[in-house]
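Lecture 7, part 2: worked example. A protein chain together with NDP.
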Amino acid sequence: MNALTVHNPATGDVLATLEADDAPAVAAKARTARDAQPAWAARSLADRRACIERFRAGVVAEREALAHLLTTETGKPIRMARNELDGLLPRIDFFLEQVERVTADETVLAQEGLRERIQHLPLGVVANISAWNYPWFVGCNVLLPALLTGNAVLYKPSEFASLTGREIVRLLHAAGVPHDVLQPVVGGGETGAALLAQPVHGVFFTGSHATGQRVAQSLAGRLVHLQLELGGKDPGYVCEDADPRTAAESLADGAMYNAGQSCCAVERIYVHEAIHDAFVRHFVEAVRGMRRGDPLDEATYLGPLTRAGQIGVLQAQVDDALAQGAQLQLGGGALPGPGNWFDATVFTEVHHGMALMREESFGPVIGIQRVRGDDEALALMNDTRYGLTAGVYTPDEGRARRLLSGVRAGSVYWNCCDRVSPRLPWSGVGDSGLGLTLSTYGIQAFTRPKAWHLRSVSG
Ligand code: NDP
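Predicted complex, written out as structure tokens:
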């Protein structure tokens, strides 16, 4: 067994050392899951739902301790950690409400002597390889519908959210999900790679495009059901008829919430030249008002970066932007440790030749670009290999609809940003991913439709 050390990103302190699973341990877990899955699928849906209802009650009962752990492990400010746990509840409720209807057998033809039916079967054993930035959300978006629909799950939380991942598993086991049906796989990238080598029936991955590509390559040739929820470079466009202050406050929150470490964080802003300067003033004021500090402090809005390695990525983007003539309005670099701290950074006079406007930042760094009108804004919003979300700010719904219809993205927003709904599919276009979670489609994603052709012989 290898060891995995978990640090507090705010202080650099070691929080725990966990035993990581090596390849033989991962293989043994996969065998156990395979053996256990048919009995889990054979249990009634009511039984499986009751487990998830008890899990929900467990999350509610332990909310404060779970939020505290999430904050110490990832650096997410405590209020945002609570928001994540609170936001999980409507997701659970949605899955519980919808699973029966979505997975019920369907008769699609009933004629004299001939019936056609669709049955929704579980995929079998699925691997859930998950990111650290919203571990409850991205973990449970897969775990809950997968378990409800009768799959066994091998769950590898990110090494940066292993303790939270362990709590998710503990609560699901305590709620009645058998230990063999849901198994944690603990470790870093090597452990993830060992998991992919197992004969699983589906792989559900949330993480960066670079790792997602490696995952897809390692599965090529095996024809395993694969979903990839990857990064983004999400734009927001502010039209000249928008209120600059309201738009600035909304987009500043979208850019800086969780220190910019959201897959759907606002990463690029385009503002009509007529209100550009007013918007920048309000935006800088809003970011300046965000309190940085101990993430356990109730007043903190900006915490540390979860991963130390991201400081170098952000600094390289900042240096490149400065070298190419961007104007620094706020921040501009790493802050002294201990811990992984980066100043909230705002640039203007940016362009698409800068890495800041092309590559995912995944941190509290943003560029604001002046545009002459809708055509230019739309062209710039689509000038990306990613396509997760995009937003437009204007009071004119028709204008917003025209613009958003032209945007290549999985989710589009009018006068809002950085928002996820359990009722809507969460998906990406281009390098933002393949497949989806959430919505009724995100339940069916864990099932395989089997077609029944039933011809009765008249006797
Ligand atoms: P990574 O790609 O670094 O890691 C994702 C997961 O893959 C982790 O569990 C990681 O393990 C594991 N992993 C690493 N290497 C391998 C490998 N060779 N084989 C199998 N698994 C491997 O992403 P992050 O965790 O840093 O997450 C941030 C990224 O996730 C951002 O790009 C963000 O945009 C994206 N994201 C997308 C979401 C979406 O819904 N589209 C939602 C949330 C995040 P370990 O961490 O232990 O190394």
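The longest helix spans residues 78-103. The chain has a mean pLDDT of 97. Keep this in mind for problem set question 3.
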